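re: ur question from earlier - yeah i can do the single chain one, its not a big deal. heres the input i used so u can compare w yours
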Amino acid sequence: MKHSTILLVEDDYLDVVSVQRAFKKLNIDHTLHIAHNGVDALGMLTDEKSKLVPDIILLDINMPKMNGLEFVRIIKNYYSLKNIKIFMITTSGEEYDRIAAESMGVTGYIIKPLNFKDPDSAGTRKLMEELLQES
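and the output i got, formated as tokens:
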């Protein structure tokens, strides 16, 4: 598995820790950048000095300042960013959120909490592993 650069856009500290633990358990070779809202993440991606172009963006839907769907709408208009694989990570099981995310070209939709020991999350684990191998 190659080294991956991942941008996690998440406003909840415990969810950040949960993602970090999940990647550690999966033995994923990665560099994790963290933004606490869509505005900060957009700044990280568009700042000429940082040159951050992640392989994957893990994005919460419900955040202050700019929610995940607004963030996706904006970065899909940037030629250099529009092909980055994006996973929505959310507590929302609402079908309309999933449909909205998929219609904007989001790669996957993961329901929190991340618990890769749970048999119901086996598909999510496999999807993340395959995606990280491809990127």
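Helices lie at 13-25, 38-46, 68-75, 95-103, 122-134. not sure if urs matches, ping me
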